[in-house]
Amino acid sequence: MTTMPASVPTAVGEALTRIEGRLKVTGQARYAAEFPAPGLAYGWIVPARIARGRVRAIDIDAALALPGVLAVLHHGNAPRLTDAGDATLLVLQDDAVPHWGWPVALVVATTSEQARAAAERIHVTYDEEPHDVVFSAEHAGTYIPDHVNPAQETSTVLGDVDAALAAADVVVDATYSTPNEHNSPMEPHSATARWADGRLEVIDSNQGAFAVRQSLATLFSLDPSAVHVRSEHVGGGFGAKGTARPHVVLAAMAATVLQRPVRVTLTRQQMFSLVGYRTPTVQRVRVGADASGRLTALDHLAYSQTSRVLEFTEQTAIYARVMYAAGALRTDHRVVALDVPTPRWMRAPGEAPGSFAVESALDELAEQCGIDPVELRARNEPDVEPATGRPFSSRNLRTCFTEGARRFGWAGRDARPGVRRDGRWLLGTGTAAATYPARVTPSTATATAEADGLFTIRITASDIGTGARTALTQIAADALRVPLERVRVLIGDSDFGQAQLAGGSLGTGSWGFAITEACRALRTELDGGATVPPDGLTARADTAERVQALPALSRHSYGAQFAEVAVDLSSGEVRVRRMVGIFAVGRVVNPLTARSQLVGGMTMGLSMALHEEAILDPVFGDVVNHDLAGYHVATNADVPPIEVDWVDDADDVIPTGTKGLGEIGIVGAAAAIANAVWHATGARHRDLPIRPDRVLFS
To answer: Could you give all domains of the chain from N- to C-terminal order, each with its CATH number?
Structure first.
């Protein structure tokens, strides 16, 4: 019988290095494109070279004549698919071309080099149609979407906003914009598919193996049990790998046709067309306040683009629904469908661009009112969630600002812009708030007591570089009341059952909830004297009912961002000299990986503020800078010392007490930097990124 000690040192709260860290740094951890398979063939996508139209003819003879080429799939011979609710996955089904880069063929060969060479020999003739890829808030095709993603209300209204603005002592009415931004994880999307013993076996780089399984089962009209998806090690995602993408469908198609393993890996350039991106936004924010800086009105209208393939509406204006008390509040979204790839999730979707606009407007209000920006936010703290009236489970934003201001040295700041210098550099400091929802969804997990005294946890979680596997091991060890070394957690396997995908800061809370329930059930059996058979004793948990019964509270993580910048007016260069972020994120399971996630998010916010911008060619309809040479991201030399920490934030709504922190680090970071640039120069930058040319001509 496995004995259960009465108490052991708690693992949650320890700063532990990643359990799989040694495997990764020694190359033993295999990613999706690294698994061997007997008879493996390689697929290479042939992308469309027009922005809109139809394929009139496709000449594949020259490609088929090359050595090693096994097949060329196109809309005339590819397997038929069933609509899975995501039209971006219905590739090679007809002759329509909805945007530049859409797959029009897949070449399969015995080597990747042969497949690529053959793809370049395929000649496609198109019937081009007029296209429109230029986004603007004034676009004639702008419309009101049914909902914003996830399925939330398009509009919310409380009170008479227009009347409150007309009566306000101080009004800020400004328009802000953010550009087309792209997820660029280190590991490109890759999938290997094969049929074995009547099952479609897939190794894929994704953020949710169970969700990908469900999509493939529907697309290929299979029973879900006939599809097995694994994604044990994933080299980053940022949302781009949230659900199935075309590469995994094409790999499964080719494996079905050829009855041999096929691997499809996207190039970096193809990722700019096929996996999603952050839509550009235009946001009009109107803020009204009395002379003391207390908000009387807040109006947030957000415009974004979507594709003609699948509607995706960035939930940009929801940021304003939860942050500040205002007598009247209105949030709204508009969207325009263009001949462009479908936008998707990118780290803190909605909150990242939304926070830039709202937190910049708050800084402008502080300037007009002559009130310190930190104090202005404190004066507008709500007692309940503004848009819904729901009570907060916990809200420690003011504590974050107090601690952040102390560590940053905010006290005594001269509010006048353009007065601090360091040689040729103008210096400035700025701040902004941050929030991200703390949600939880139903998940399943099993906990097994093994005959050798160890415990095995199985859950279809995904670790995309966040340290999730380590955090879940800590949670399981505490729930079982055993030392950490007696627990192993297996993840990334769709056979383990339904579970939340890695995204939306939902992972640790949702998975940890299910793991805790399974471990407690197992512990109860063992404490009751249950004997462990040779094949182990297993307890299973499904948190669906528990999640449904959770109280209707407003659960969010919060944070305060601070930044100091130096601006060279002779070159337009902006350098961030230091950043401080203090967060209220519930219970922190692993301080080491938590700090890494927050620093990473703030770094991404710096990149958003100063560097990232994809340029769409209006003539051809493609992204001009579709690689990491042309699409600029922050690198080591751009990133200053970043200090992060968190405050006590008790939240016992779910057993783990966690709120999620993967997304919140990027929220508000760009606004803090933009506000600091204003403080340094006296010029307001309402359009991201803050490029040198924009600094020079502002």
So the answer is: 393-440+551-698 (3.30.365.10), 441-548 (3.30.365.10)
What does the block give as tokens for 214?
Answer: 């469900």
Closest CA to 191 of 269, 72, 275: 275
- 392: number of Cβ within 10 Å: 18
The dihedral over CA atoms of 214, 219, 223, 228, expressed in degrees to the nearest 10, equals -50
**Which residues are annotated as catalytic?**
663
pLDDT at residue 650 in the model? 87
Query: Residue 660: what residue type?
Result: G
Interatomic CA distance for residues 427 and 570, integer angstroms: 14
How many whole angstroms separate alpha carbon 433 and alpha carbon 85?
A: 36
3-class DSSP state of 1: coil
Q: Is residue 1 predicted with pLDDT exceeding 70?
A: no
pLDDT attached to residue 4: 56
> Whose CA is closest to 492, among 459, 516, 515?
459
Residues 251/255/257/260 CA torsion (nearest 10 deg): 150
Distance CA 445, CA 457 (A): 7
- Name, in order, each residue with C-beta under 8 angstroms of 496's C-beta and a sequence gap of 6 or more: 210, 444, 445, 446, 458, 459, 460, 490
Q: What would the DSSP string read from start to end of 583-601?
A: EE-B--S-HHHHHHHHHHH
Q: 642-652 pLDDT, tens per residue? A: 999 999 998 99
Mean pLDDT for 93-115 is 98
Tokens of 599: 């620093």
What are the tokens at 380?
Answer: 């507008």
Cis peptide before 150 (omega within 30 of 0): yes
Judged against a pLDDT cut of 50, whether residue 638 lies above it is answered with: yes
CA atoms of 373 and 172, how far apart (whole Å): 14
Query: Which residue do the tokens 């063929």 mark?
Result: 105
CB 342 within 8 A of CB 307: yes
Peptide bond into 38 cis (omega under 30): no
CA distance 6 to 370: 59
Pairing state between β 262-265 and 41-47: parallel
pLDDT tens, residue by residue, 450-466:
999 999 999 999 999 99
Spatial strand order of the sheet with 96-97 comes to: 96-97, 53-59, 123-128
Query: How do residues 15-71 score in pLDDT, each as one tens digit?
Result: 999 999 999 999 999 999 999 999 999 999 999 999 999 999 999 999 999 999 999
Q: With CA atoms as reference, report the closest residue to 280 among 332, 357, 187.
A: 357
Count of CB atoms within 10 A of residue 664's CB?
34
At 197-223, the pLDDT tens digits run: 999 999 999 999 999 999 999 999 999
Other CB atoms within a 10 A radius of the CB of residue 280 amount to: 23
**Interatomic CA distance for residues 108 and 74, integer angstroms:** 11
